[in-house]
């Protein structure tokens, strides 16, 4: 990989657990900022070796067969990044350094390379190397529960937050850290829409309170309206064909709500000061809101004076019951 020495004024770093997480959770946001000239860096922590395979002709790639799914998903991720316009992608510690841990409680959690069991400071140090090079002003990852309880998502959160602490000690911490979120009002609307559907991802769920994710609307900090990038997000999701069936309910709802479903993404603010509100409900409409990006320098290796501080009110308690499948994990998306 060629190390870039001159970067745009705005730099965004996203940390995701598996290939396809970036497209489902933050694809429109990534495409929005890439198209607007920001430098978007994606760090993926595993190859997603334990994912299900929705292409029958590739069933032999499964972990229980040839165990080559991870290698195949490298190509899927490359195609997804191309669709999103993201040119800077890295695997944490290098491709294959950490393995997909599988769902919580499975024997795969104990694999010698399982990301769930990774040494926190070692993994955070590897992410710190990326921070030193790119000097992002904004980082994005999951909340303490990994959004829906997957061990690799939880570990990605821990590694990101530890790397931020280490970067702060060097005076190069990103000014803001956001966690991906889904407002309860959006979930409630989705549950209502699917009530009579034969392909209902909420089947068996009577209340949004039963889901392991969903953020009260008053805790949402930012709403990124990237509806002009909804086609890029859908193309990126389709690139992950082993994980997202071509007839997935995700595409069905996209057909009904189109740009709004694919193009609007939400975040809570974990570190830093909220910027000026530019969207509904007093939410930020720009992850860089309130950051003077011109003063932080555009060359890698130059110290960034904007070292963010935690926002205690934004932190959510870690939820105790991880998800192993069913409608909740389906709503959260494939691995």
UniProtKB/TrEMBL annotation:
EC numbers for this chain: 3.5.1.103
The name this protein goes by in its record: 1D-myo-inositol 2-acetamido-2-deoxy-alpha-D-glucopyranoside deacetylase
Species classification: Bacteria, Bacillati, Actinomycetota, Actinomycetes, Micromonosporales
Source organism of the structure: Micromonospora antibiotica
SUPFAM superfamilies named among the record's database cross-references: LmbE-like
Stored Pfam families: PIG-L
Function per UniProt: Catalyzes the deacetylation of 1D-myo-inositol 2-acetamido-2-deoxy-alpha-D-glucopyranoside (GlcNAc-Ins) in the mycothiol biosynthesis pathway.
Keyword terms of this UniProt record: Hydrolase, Metal-binding, Zinc
Family to which this protein belongs: Belongs to the MshB deacetylase family.
Cofactor binding note from Swiss-Prot or TrEMBL: Binds 1 zinc ion per subunit.
GO molecular function: N-acetylglucosaminylinositol deacetylase activity
Binding site for Zn(2+): 18, 21, 153
Gene3D superfamilies in UniProt: LmbE-like
